[in-house]
Amino acid sequence: MRFVTMRDVIAVCVMTAVAVSGPAGAVTLRVGAGDRPPGLGNPYESVATLVSHSRVAILDSLLRQDLQGGFEPALALSWTATSDLTWEFKLRPDVIFSNGEPADAQAVKATLDFLIGPNSARYLIAQETRAIERVDVIDDVTVLITTKYPDAVLPKRLSLVLIVPPKAFAEMGLAAFAQNPIGSGSYILEDWGEQSGRTIMTANTTSWRAPEHIDRVEVYAPLRDAVVRMQALRSGQVDITLNVNVDERATLEAEGFINTTQPIGTIQSIALPNLIDPDSPLQDIRVRHALNYAVNKELITEVIMGGTTKPTGQGAIPQSFGYNPDIEPYPYDPDRARALLAEAGYADGFSLNLETLRGSQPTDDVVYVQVAQDLARVGVQVNVRPLIGTEWIRKYFSGDWGDADILSVTWNAGAYSDTIRAIETFSCNKPGAFYCAPELTPLIQESNRTFDEAERERLLQNIMARFHDLAPAIFLYNQAVIISHHPRVEKVVMGGGGLVFERMRMADESE
User: Which of 399, 445, 410, 441 is nearest to 131 (CA)?
Assistant: First the structure.
């Protein structure tokens, strides 16, 4: 468990001292966040998450998740498959970037051409555009996308592609653009706050989704420790914060704060690779099953997670397309785990190095200690080593895990509410693949090329059932986020990429 250091406390005190309410008359929302977006305004290195909502406040995609997990128009008003290999997107007319460039068909083409180009394969978001053969501009508001093979998921994939102004992007280059992103979204970046610890965004009044009420957003980051974020909330430094400690909910409510727990579309797991070490015990399916039976997920979710989430046996939540309702979590059965290990030739156990991404959830450190203790009870000794985000990302994408045997990995269907994205993480085709079941590759390809939704859902559910049986990971639980805020935040709106600032509202304290 991580303890708050004096440096953490000093950081809060310093930032509280410099906190301001913004220009006179401006409605300001102040947010406590664990970190800034990975890569800051770089739209292609990482997916927008709860810590990177500032990026999706600035930049737009063609479509975006609505509040129910479906999709709603963004820069595109409609999208239609005109054949198995072509998609037509009709764009919102007269949209401009904050620098005055038109957010039109040429901007969409330039963005997609960059991502499908030979120099962009290393970027995470480029994987979402891998099916695209070419992009044609029909007119200012019409784009025709031709794919190399049928891709029924393409519109959902493009919800992760943020469109940039082509002239400014070409002149600045990606590194400079990351520092000063220019978009057509609700807010304009003033400062990432790398010196002050305060990212500042102001209303983009020319945006097609101009803010309804909040003129200015100040994101205080990095506040990596949940205790520090709660201190910032209690001191009045911030109005709202995410991922507070589960055991502090009652105390915060007694102090007058409002808590909301919201499931998110990611499954916490520990990857059990079969491509990293050919001599690893993990090559044996009996060992992978044993590790799943050995972990007491009910204790983790009920005690450590405070009942905010539930154990799972697959890489998706019920709200994700392709979720299989017939799959049950592996039960806690240490005797069965020991028997399977003995049957596989490991009656005396073995050792594993586990590396985990630090800071994803406040309870992560405690969860992985509990996992290690459970595995030790069946003879598997686990050495837990936390990683900072950049090092974890490098290992995840490169496939070079060093001396790590297992790695914390989420099944992220939440990025566009479709289980295929989580499935592809554990497929042979993932860049830097760590697990491969060749027999599933044709099924994955078929699901991607099936336009009939009912049939495609059946295919995905079948793949999920196969993954459950293959156990390429220790399935743990679906993640949830606890949002805590002051009553002056009158309306809280959470979307797929985090807080939707432009739809939120502050109470009028003058009344």
Answer: 445
* Residue 176 in domain: no
Residue 502 and residue 60 in contact, taking contact as beta carbons nearer than 8 Å:
no
Q: In whole angstroms, what is the distance from residue 428 CA to residue 141 CA?
A: 38
Looking up residue 111, the CATH number of its domain turns out to be 3.90.76.10
Helix (H, G, I), strand (E, B) or coil at 133: strand
Residue 268 has pLDDT above 50, yes or no: yes
Enumerate long-range contacts of 3-6, CB under 8 Å, 24 or more apart: 4/225, 4/227, 4/228
**DSSP character at residue 125:** G
pTM of the model: 0.82
Instruction: Give kind and range of the element (H or E) at residue 240.
Output: strand 240-242
Say which CATH number the domain at 37 has: 3.40.190.10
Q: Is residue 11 within 8 Å of residue 228, measured between CB atoms?
A: yes
User: Beta strands 86-91 and 76-83: pairing type?
Assistant: antiparallel
> What is the phi/psi pair of residue 87, to 5°?
-125, 130
Parallel/antiparallel/unpaired status of strands 187-191 and 198-203:
antiparallel
**H or E element, residue 430:** none
* Distance between CA atoms of residues 340 and 342, nearest Å: 5
Both tokens assigned to 212: 């309804």
Angle 291-297-298 from CA coordinates, rounded to 5°: 145
- The boundaries of the domain holding residue 445 are 264-480
Residue 138 lies in a domain: yes
Q: Are residues 23 and 143 in the same domain?
A: no
For position 392, which CATH number holds? Answer: 3.10.105.10
Half-sphere exposure of 439 (CA within 13 A, CB side): 5
Give the dihedral sign, CA 55/179/422/72.
Answer: positive
H helix and E strand count, the chain:
15, 20
pLDDT above 70: percentage of residues in the chain = 92
Whether residues 271 and 316 share a domain: the answer is yes
Kindly report, residue by residue over 28-72, the tens digit of the pLDDT: 999 998 888 878 888 888 776 665 578 889 999 999 887 666 789
As given in the structure block, the two tokens for residue 168 are 């400014």
pLDDT at 360 > cutoff 80: no
Letter for the amino acid at 67? L
Q: Tell me the average pLDDT across 70-80.
A: 93
Number of domains in the chain: 3
Higher local confidence (pLDDT), 492 or 417:
492
**Are 285 and 470 in contact, with CB atoms under 8 Å apart?**
yes
* Confidence check: pLDDT of 3 > 60: no
